[in-house]
């Protein structure tokens, strides 16, 4: 079969790899019908040292079950399913608490023995825990929105939930990528009254307004922070959702959050050290929350609103391609020419 491999920074190739096979009784084989490129994929695309690959790519996919192991009972051949971005067994103490990204037997698609989702097929371990059946056909117009349940919508929603967004909250969202825009949608869904989106790309911030942003701040750094404070009577917002992952974005979050507020980070941090002490978080009782989103916990909560048309998170996809176009899709996203690329193998 064909699959996407990253060989080094800027070097994405679609190559022939061995077909996946069932390796255990809890496995399923899934033929991929929809996948995508994630903003998180751009970090290794920009920085992977030459010679350290190849690495299988992709952690968001929908597909049709082709075969199951003897112990799989919740899905069967022919079912259309979506898989969360993080692999979990569904039975450990953390999974039972809904903290799937803390699973003691968990892992990442494309790492170690696990296939990547930007491919024609995937072996799915722990199929009963991992795969959620979709009550539509593979040709449904809802596919882009349902695919966001795998990662970006669930991650944006996790940011808002972990940040404690409730009815009447004021919220700043840092980042106009797919996760940031869906954090806006999530904050609106949870009843936020004021949602300030910090982003510089008009097509994206226009979508952010459609999703519920009440204000847009295009400036960065201290200038951006001052504009947020002007919009909030000098106080900052109750919650800041940081969906970028850079130290500069974190510093903006510290500047934009209200005293006794919460910073919720879901952008994968590209730093280890940042201000948390008396002059930043401690003195003013600012809470730091967020983390790797356990999107498996949110799929069933968020799916009904997609199915009934209340929300359309799939609008974050502005480009579509087949597998052959994936290398160009990476470059388009890196160059900010595309917001998020949908892949139909």
Q: What is the name of the CATH class of the largest domain? A: Alpha Beta
Q: Could you please say which CATH topology of the largest domain applies here?
A: Quinone Oxidoreductase, Chain A, domain 1
Which value, in Å, is the CA radius of gyration?
20 Å
What is the helix/strand order? EEEHEEEEHEEHEHHEHEHEHEHEHEHEHE
How would you characterize this protein structure?
With 345 residues, the chain is an alpha/beta fold. The model has no long low-confidence stretch (mean pLDDT 97). The chain has helices at 42-47, 93-96, 127-130, 143-147, 152-162, 178-189, 202-211, 221-231, 247-256, 278-282, 299-307, 326-334; strands at 2-8, 11-16, 28-36, 55-56, 61-68, 80-83, 86-87, 107-108, 121-124, 132-133, 170-174, 194-198, 215-217, 237-242, 257-265, 287-290, 319-321, 341-343. It starts with a strand and ends with a strand.
Helices, strands, pairings?
Layout: E1 2-8, E2 11-16, E3 28-36, H1 42-47, E4 55-56, E5 61-68, E6 80-83, E7 86-87, H2 93-96, E8 107-108, E9 121-124, H3 127-130, E10 132-133, H4 143-147, H5 152-162, E11 170-174, H6 178-189, E12 194-198, H7 202-211, E13 215-217, H8 221-231, E14 237-242, H9 247-256, E15 257-265, H10 278-282, E16 287-290, H11 299-307, E17 319-321, H12 326-334, E18 341-343
Parallel strand pairs: 11-12, 11-14, 12-13, 14-15, 15-16, 17-18
Antiparallel strand pairs: 1-2, 1-4, 3-5, 3-9, 3-18, 5-6, 6-10, 7-8
């Amino acid at each position: 079969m064909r699959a996407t491999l990253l060989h080094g920074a800027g070097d994405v190739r679609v190559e022939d790899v061995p077909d996946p096979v069932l390796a255990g009784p809890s496995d399923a084989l899934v033929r991929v019908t929809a996948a995508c490129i994630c903003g998180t994929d751009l970090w290794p695309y920009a920085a992977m040292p030459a010679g350290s690959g190849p690495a299988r790519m992709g952690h968001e996919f929908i597909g049709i079950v082709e075969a199951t192991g003897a112990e799989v009972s919740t899905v069967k051949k022919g079912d259309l399913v979506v898989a969360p971005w993080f692999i979990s067994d569904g039975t450990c103490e953390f999974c039972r608490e809904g903290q799937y990204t803390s699973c003691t037997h968990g892992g990442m698609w494309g790492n170690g023995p696990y296939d990547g989702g930007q491919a024609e097929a995937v072996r799915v371990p722990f199929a009963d825990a991992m795969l959620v059946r979709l009550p539509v056909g593979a040709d449904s117009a809802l596919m882009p929105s349902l695919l966001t349940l795998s990662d970006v919508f669930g991650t944006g929603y996790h940011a808002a939930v972990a940040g404690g967004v409730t009815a009447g909250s004021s919220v700043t969202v840092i980042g106009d990528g797919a996760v940031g825009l869906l954090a806006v949608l999530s904050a609106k869904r949870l009843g936020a009254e004021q949602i300030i989106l910090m982003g510089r790309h008009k097509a994206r911030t226009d979508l952010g307004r459609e999703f519920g942003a009440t204000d847009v701040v295009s400036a960065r750094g201290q200038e951006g922070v001052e504009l947020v404070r002007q919009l909030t009577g000098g106080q900052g917002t109750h919650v800041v959702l940081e969906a970028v992952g850079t130290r500069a974005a974190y510093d903006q979050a510290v500047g934009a959050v209200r005293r006794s507020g919460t910073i919720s980070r879901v952008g994968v941090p590209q730093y280890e050290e940042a201000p948390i002490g008396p002059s930043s978080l401690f003195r003013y009782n600012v809470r730091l929350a967020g983390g790797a989103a356990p999107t498996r916990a949110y799929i069933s909560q968020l799916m009904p609103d997609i199915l009934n048309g209340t929300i359309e998170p799939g609008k974050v996809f502005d480009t579509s391609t087949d597998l052959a176009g994936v290398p160009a899709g990476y470059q388009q996203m890196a160059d900010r020419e595309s917001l998020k690329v949908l892949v139909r193998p």
